[in-house]
Amino acid sequence: MKTNNPGKILLVDDKAENLFALEVILSSEHYICVKANSGTEALKILLQQQDFSIILMDVQMPEMDGFETAELIRGIETLKHIPIIFLTASMDSHVHIFKGYKAGAVDYMIKPFSPEILKAKVAVFAELYKKNYELLRQKEEMERLIRDLTNQKRIENELIERKNIAEKATQKAEESANLKDAFLSIISHEIRTPLNAILGFSNVLLKGKLGATEKEYVGIVKTAGENLLTIINDTIDMSMIEAGTMTFTENNFSIREIFQKINIMFEEKAEEKNLALLFTIDKDVQDILVGDQTRLIQIINNLISNAIKFTEKGTINVRVRVFKNENSLLEFSVTDTGIGISADNLDTIFNRFKQVEDHNNRKHGGLGLGLAIAKRLVDIQGGAMTVESKLNEGSTFAFSIPFKK
Ligand code: ADP
């Protein structure tokens, strides 16, 4: 408190002249004095204003005396620290003094008192109260800080615990993904080996001497085997793409040779359906490029196999051209004159497990993964795949891949 505002004092006395005398003495020291002419009045004031530095209280008052008033003040949490100095005319008995201290007095003054002593005492207690108040404030601030710190620590611990749980979950997920990969790789090997035997011996049988019925049955076995192989390969490819474990090689390859190989693979199937299978390489396409030819063949195969599957008459055109004059960015396209795809189905045609619902799907095998895999294989290599189609007229699937020269 500054000297021009040394504090606020509550003066309690039932005699107006006593209150006036006290006020005169203390106002000279710049204290702000609030007067109460009874214990009840004092309590009323205190319930509204709690910023008093000290209370000067007359002991002998009618109705409620100073001791009773003090005891009531002590009972109120926000008021109990305000020092009370009792003013009494009779200090004849020790019992009296004891009663006063028990009620919460910090000191006594016997009337008539010297104004100088009164001022000195009030100054000491006002100062003490100020210091006490400051300490109390600091204690509260400390407690608040400790509470904040404890809260912060609790939140930190909670975060650490959550992080641990998340790490454990990630570890578990990784472990189970690794297990899944290992399982897929083992199971695919185990299934592919006997399947290759089935397909191999079906081919041998088909080339040998067989009756018409036997030939038909072996043909069915072969087709079923091929479908099964596609399903297994697609499932493994998709799971490798999802797991991010699909790898790509970089080797020199010839576009012409690739088209020749693909032609050999499909000419028989196209002939069976009386379809023309044509390959075109635009003249500005450089023959030798660097990239993953196995994946390139896989993508083109998928598109040609669909084109043959969904075309009953006409031509399948496979073409490669230089895309947008960037001579290493090639665009491959497979165009058929087949059943086409309706506009509502075009948007989702590259989604996994997408199959356009009509009897054609049931006629042919497949999981609806082929296009999804092909598109992702193109995407991963930094390319793009598109489709244009008209129902009952045909479709063009095109994709571009940037190759190195
Ligand atoms: P699936 O292995 O079942 O053929 P794909 O992902 O290769 O799966 O093809 C998904 C679906 O897209 C097919 O079931 C078919 O309905 C449609 N589709 C794909 N290619 C063609 C095409 N060239 N002409 C008409 N429909 C096609």
Provide a descriptive summary of the structure in words.
This protein has 405 residues and is of the alpha/beta class. The chain has three domains: 1-181, Response regulator (Rossmann fold, 3-Layer(aba) Sandwich); 191-236; 251-402, 2-Layer Sandwich (Heat Shock Protein 90). The chain contains eleven helices and twelve strands. The chain has helices at residues 16-27, 39-48, 66-74, 94-102, 115-207, 212-243, 255-272, 293-309, 343-346, 359-363, 370-380, and strands spanning 8-12, 32-36, 54-58, 84-88, 105-110, 251-254, 275-281, 288-291, 314-322, 329-335, 384-390, 394-402. The strands form three sheets. It has a five-stranded parallel sheet with strand order 2-1-3-4-5, sandwiched between helices. Strands 7-9-10-12-11 form a five-stranded mixed sheet. Helix 1 (16-27) links the parallel strand 1 (8-12) and strand 2 (32-36). Helix 2 runs parallel beside helix 3 (66-74) and helix 6 (212-243) crosses helix 11. The radius of gyration is 49 Å and the shape is rod-shaped. The mean pLDDT is 88. The chain binds adenosine-5'-diphosphate. Adenosine-5'-diphosphate (ADP) is lined by residues 306-307, 310, 336, 338-341, 349, 354-356, 361, 366-372, 395.
